[in-house]
Amino acid sequence: MSAPDYILEASALKRQFEVAKPLFGKAKVVRAVDGVDLKIARGETFAIVGESGCGKSTLARLLVRLMTPTDGAVIYEGRNIASIPEQEMRDLRRELQFIFQDPFSSLNPRMTVGALIEEPMRVHRIGTVAQRREKVAALLSRVGLSPQIADRYPHEFSGGQRQRVGIARALASGPKVLIGDEPVSALDVSIQAQVVNILEDLKQEFGLTLVVIAHDLAVVRHMADRVAVMYLGEIVELAPVDALFDAPRHPYTAALIAAIPVPQVGARKATAKLEGDPPNPIDLPTGCRFHPRCPHATDLCRTSKPTLRARDAGGQVACHYADELTLDGLSAGSDTRSDAANARFEIYRAARARSEGANAPATTTT
Amino acid sequence: MSAPLLDVKGLSVRIAGTSRDLVADVSFTLHPGETLCVVGESGCGKSLTALSLMGLLASPPLSVTGGEALFDGRDLLQMPLDQLQALRGDRMAMIFQEPMTSLNPALRVGDQIAESVQRHQGVSAKAARARALEMLRRVGIPAPESRLDAYPHNLSGGMRQRVMIAMALANDPALLLADEPTTALDVTIQAQILALMRDLQAQSGSAMILITHDLGVVAEMADKVAVMYAGRIVEFGTVAQIFEDPQHPYTIGLMSSMPTLGQRVARLVTIPGVVPQASQMPPGCRFASRCPFANASCAKTPDMTEVATGHRVACWQVPLEAGIDQRVSA
Question: The domain at B6-91+171-329 falls in which architecture?
Answer without folding.
Answer: 3-Layer(aba) Sandwich (3.40)
